[in-house]
Each structure stands twice: as structure tokens, then as C-alpha cells.
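Here is one chain, start to finish.
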Amino acid sequence: MSTTLETIAYTDPEGGTVERRVEVGPERPAGPGASFRVRDVHDPDGGGRLVQKRLGALDARRRVGAEARLEAEIRVLLRLARTFGHDAYPPELARIAGHDFDGIEPFLLVEPAPCPPSADVVGKLLTDEQEDFQRAIFRTARYLEVAGVVHGDLSPATVCWQREQRRLFVADFAHAALAGEPRGG
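Its structure:
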């Protein structure tokens, strides 16, 4: 995989401004039918790996909807960060590292998912694993409720399952909204 060096500026979850020189990987689609593109971002000066979610090349009408979904996802992830803080943040939920919604090319930075989408394993789970999966879904839904977040699309495409740890991970909040807010399409 080829990488290039690039300087990115963004706002961290606490509201501070960050500017970093990072290695970025090639863009790839976020998923089937997604309006977003993603790429891996790595800080060569000791920072970790992140995933940058950006808008792809879209016509004006589709871009407006995609921008609204990106903005909603940023709001939701910031709500989760502020509700749970750093130390009590549930390991089942994607964590925001930063965002730049007001720039020319709006983006969101998140920590990478620790496992592939559950669609790869969900039909292969043993009975006790299925029960653990169900409990994990309910526990995760409770975390979202505590934060006042409605996910809107908990599915095998947006959820990962770590079989060894029997832990669920919600990797995508593109269809989420804060409770009481209308959800975009």
C-alpha cells in the first residue's frame, strides 16, 4: 500500500485545534452504496492509526445529503465522547479522534474498528456465541440510550463482532441522530 505525507488540521473532541503531519493511505469506498470514502491515517511521530471518513465525488444534490449525514455523525460521536469521557468510554463504540466540518473537504477521524463487520461471522455463530451477541447488542443499545443517541442502523454492516473476546463494536454512526432530532435519509 502506498502512502503519502500530508498535513491535516482538525478539531479534537475537547474542542482544541490540532495540526499534524501524517501518512495517508489510498482512498477506498466506505461500503456498498456509501456516499463516503475512507482512508487510513498514521502519525509517523508516535501517534496511532486512525481512519479518515470523507465525502466522495458527488453531484450537488447527493452532496447536501451526505454532508448532513457526516455532520450528524460528528454530533453523535461528540455526544458519546462528552457523555462517557475518556476513561469510561465504552469499548463497544467507535471513538471520535477529530473532525473538520467547516473545511473545503469536510472529514471525520475515528479510531479504526478492531475487527471486520459481523456480516462475515453472524451466520456462523454457535448458540452460546449468539446469546453473547444478543446480550452485547442490548448492552450497547443501553449505552446509546444513556447518551441520548438513536443509532438507526444497527446491522451486520455497521457492527463488528470480536469472536475471541465475544465483544461487539459499533463501527458506523452514519444513520444515527441525537434523541429528538429528525434523522436524515
